[in-house]
Write a structure and sequence with these properties.
4-stranded parallel β-sheet; 273 residues
Length: 273
């Protein structure tokens, strides 16, 4: 697929819909495609022209985090190629966009060919709620109410690498019937950390158990967040504790999908809540 570029990289001409590449991410693709569908729906509603590049692949974060620099670089180069030429690249993940925004330029610093390409991609890559609020100035008008109490967990990469904090709360505040309740220490890690939970399971379990207790103490029915890996980790722990709190990605709440099976639920289980 040949991508058409605009005169000013990363910015379409005035009045023209931005051409957005939806970066689906590995976990979303394999574990919860509904998150990608909800992200696409939001982008279309916000007036973007959305494409899903078929050549996209893993951003390379697991390889980089595990010290596999060679495979990480190979995946990064392929991703740079696949996402070239779009006005913006948007994903429902702070950690994957954080990799593109920070790890790619650092990895290819000093490389005359890939360095500039990595920098250009980094400048055009956004987490979905940040893109909607900070770039498009989008004000959603949800038509499907959600009668529930929800609390929000700030994922580490989204918060610390991308500054995603107010944006999801601002968008969620527009959902009729959704009462947001604060989560104590919402900015504290849930214990997932990608490969961290595999390398240090005892520490990870202790951290997520503390997080689960904090979530339950809010009295919320729904747990929301911006990274599927973190949500799967917390949903798993909540389920093992016998908790009734159900976990969803933020974009699912923004598109009226809270009546569907939550993360970790089998189809039909939600009707028994």
């Amino acid at each position: 697929m040949t991508a058409q570029t605009h005169p000013t990289p990363g910015r379409p001409p005035a009045g023209e819909a931005p051409r957005v590449a939806l970066f689906v991410t590995c976990l979303v693709n394999v574990m919860r495609p509904a998150v990608a569908e909800a992200t696409r729906e939001l982008l279309l509603t916000a007036g973007a022209h959305v494409e899903v590049p078929l050549d996209q692949t893993c951003c390379g974060q697991p390889a980089f985090n595990s010290g596999d620099e060679a495979d990480g670089r190979a995946m990064a180069r392929r991703q740079i190629e696949a996402l070239d030429g779009y006005d913006y690249v948007v994903a429902p993940s702070g950690s994957c966009i954080g990799t593109i925004r920070h790890t790619y330029p650092e990895t290819f610093a000093g490389d005359a060919v890939w360095g500039p390409r990595a920098e250009r991609l980094a400048a055009r890559a956004f987490e979905i709620t940040s893109f909607l609020v900070d770039v498009l100035g989008f004000h959603p008008e949800p038509t499907r109410p959600a009668v529930a109490r929800a609390t929000y967990h700030d994922t580490c990469s989204g918060l610390r690498e991308l500054g995603v904090h107010d944006q999801p709360r601002r968008l969620l505040g527009s959902v009729p019937g959704l009462k947001m309740v604060p989560l104590p220490d919402a900015n504290v890690c849930c214990g997932f950390g990608g490969t961290f939970c595999v390398k240090y399971p005892a520490i990870s379990n202790a951290v997520v158990d503390e997080k689960a207790r904090a979530i339950e103490a809010t009295g919320a029915d729904i747990l929301l967040g911006g990274d599927l890996g973190c949500l799967m980790n917390m949903a798993g722990r909540l389920g093992r504790r016998g908790s009734s709190v159900r976990a969803f990605h933020t974009v699912e709440a923004l598109t009226g999908r809270l009546a569907t099976p939550a993360i970790g639920e089998a189809p039909g289980r939600e009707t028994k809540r």
